[in-house]
Predict the structure.
Amino acid sequence: MNESSKQQLVVENLHLAYGANRILQGVSMTLKPGEVVALLGASGSGKTTLLRSVAGLEQPNQGRITIGNTVLYDGSAGIDLPVEKRNLGLVFQSYALWPHRSVFENVAYGLRLRGVNGGEIDKRVGEALANLGLGALATRLPHQLSGGQQQRVAIARALVYNPPVVLMDEPLSNLDAKLREEARAWLRELIVRLNLSALVVTHDQTEAMAMADRILLLNSGRIEQQGTPEEMYSRPQTQFTAEFMGSNNHLPGKVTQLVDGRAMLEGEGWRLWGAARGAVRVGTGATGVIRLERTRIADGPGENRLRTVLVTGMFLGDRKENLFELGALRLRCYGDAPAGDGGFYLELPADHLWIFPTEVSHGTA
Amino acid sequence: MNARSFSLPRTTVVVLTVVVIFMPIGLILWQSLLNAPFFNPARHYGLGSYAFIFEDTDFWSAFGNSIVIAAGMVVIALPLGAALAFLLTRTDLPAQHWIEVLVLIPVFVSPMVLAFGYVVAMGPVGFYSLWAKSLFGDVPWNIYSLASIAIIAGLTHVPHVYLYSSAALKSLGSDVEEAARVAGANPLQVALNVSLPMTMPALFYAAVLVFFLGFELFGLPLVLGDPEGHLVLSTYLFKLTNKLGTPSYHLMAAVAVCIIAVTFPLVLLQRWLLKSAGKYVSVKGKATRQKLLPPGGWKWVALGLVALWLVFTIVVPISGIALRAFVEQWGEGIKLSEVVTLDNFRGVLDQTDQVRAIVNTLLIGVIGGGLAVACYTAIGLAGHRQRGGVSKILDYIVLIPRAIPGLLAGLAFLWIFLFVPGLKDLRNTIFSVWLAYTVVWLAYGMRLISSALLQIGPELEESARTAGASSRRVLTDVTIPLIRFGLLASWLLVFMIFEREYSTGVYLLGQGTEVIGSMLVSLWGAGAIDQVAALSLINIALVALGLGVALRFGVRLHE
């Protein structure tokens, strides 16, 4: 929005624990001006705690948080700037609108605290409300608004004093599924149009991919992987990332050959080539993971194809999902299954079949 | 469940409730319209009794005093209670848990006992007064003035304000406060701009409640107002008993109606406010930890003020009673070591009526409390999950006894037992006192029961219905087992309330119906200070016993 937003947020090696419960275990990240970063993770991964630590609502135990030249928190120097001195905008999951103040007064409060004069407040609140399409609702009380309108007031309230970084805690989770998809596009557009720097917490990978320039995937208080949505989805480095970012088929087996980064995975009655990921070794157990949409129905036998039996099909509206079996394996894929006696060939292209060393799996796909 | 299912037990409960509520209030109204006691054959209808009291200047001065004291209590209790609630719910004040328990003690100590405690501790020759005199050469206070009564009443009613404002603050999502912090408000600004306005409905409710309680005040003005002749409406009514020599029931009834004319609208206002008090309760999306604001260096100042208040409202009166109970006499120039004795307690044990009072108090608390909870439960279940008009009416009529001060309710029940045929034999049994207590505390008991019933999700009962249970089986198999801990906790709270009660028993006091509370009023009137001190201490011990059990089992001291 202006110069103050041209500052970079840097978090270095942040640790936070409640007693023996270690929530953040050395998280580092940066948020460049004009960038949208999504903090993605399951509940308990520490994503909200990280956001609240940046806001000053949680007290980390060590590490450093800075914005430009301003130190917000520095464990070793004993600096912990009070929440109200950090000049950040935060959109709460529950919106946290003050029920006793009108829409106008909710948005104006941050400006009043900053000693802005009355005329200027009218002008800036008016602009903020107009930006969010709330111009006509200024005199309403929060309970007279719909969920979507409340969300926009919460955003206007966080933006009106031009904070260098806007923090959003699950900004879409309080909306209905239908509204959420529209709001996602609208929010992304708003962030780009106003050139905001935003840190967005979400547990929904689709939401993260749609809204963010970069995604940080958190797992038990550590960053599992970070990158652009495309990298995160198509080039996961760990099985955890692969599972979290999309829907997959799983093929547990054993590695029998390794050639040029390719691994041969064998199970009972099947063998497939795939892309080796991580420390895969010949003779050890491994899991083949492939996105549902990369698994396809083939017209006959061939390389990396499996003969399977169709168990059932499900109509999902925009497409069909089929369930096949091969021994103990269950494989799902989209598309129309041609009529037949129940025997089908599925192709699992080697480039898209990631082979991860078997370990205790985190979370579910 | 079917709203039209009027089973026999349910109808019985509803009819009995209506009878015990409307008999006393109806009797008072009727009596107030007669020109002589209603049992006097020469009585006839007229407004003579109203004319009499309206011409009495004492009535108007008592009315004025009641308003001054009630208003003074609001002015004192409201800011202190609200500040205390904010300190205990929002800051990291040390020893919060213990302070919270101590804060509630004045609610459970009989006002009669407290008032007596202030007399022996801070009266003209009280322990602390003489101590102050030895330090300053003079007693720098006079607890018998109208202002002192208002201050003492105000300070002892801080817990009521605290209860409602802390409940409101606790239900206030921390997110709205955090949002203000993020927007740039410091903790004080958060308190003034967000927390305070959002708890305003609860504070307004508490203000009306305290004013109402102030209007009903009896024990404190009876003991503290007597030396300088400050009357309030309830003590004016009490003095009327002897004023004309003959029973002046018609005059008392007229005063009673005047009191109810003020308190009943206040009760309705409270109910209406209680609904709006929940206006700002925010349902949080996620269970976040209540974020505590650090009060910084003010912590010790705040703690000091809390300690000062605790000393004044608990330590001073109770230590006064404890000391007075173990000395023969007290006054200027008396050395404590020379007058220490156990004679006061021996004196109590020598009097059969006083021993009976102690036994009766225990019985009415333990057994009577249990029976009262059983009655409240029956009424609660009669209206439970019923959408019909009957349960709505029940909802309102249980509020009526709340508007009748205990002293009046006791008087009305005396009349009922004296003149309703067939009840005379019960008049000299503790049953009469129990019935009056149970009706007087009906609204309180119903709140306990309904908050226990509210904890049960309707789907638990609906699933039992679906599985084939009749509505009665649902009550015995699902509802009652689920609220049993709530019922036990209610029993304990009602025990403490019944131990503490004093005014309801005053007119019912007779051979066989003695309880410590009414005995204290009577002994105080007779000037038997030694026995008042000993009985007060015993009364405190009984309440403390209940409090100890409640704390041991983690019973919440308020609903």
The CA atoms of residues 239 and 245 of chain B lie 11 Å apart. Chain B is about 75% helix and 0% strand. Confidence is low (pLDDT under 50) at residues 282-289 of chain B. The domain at 1-26+342-559 of chain B is CATH 1.10.3720.10 (MetI-like fold).
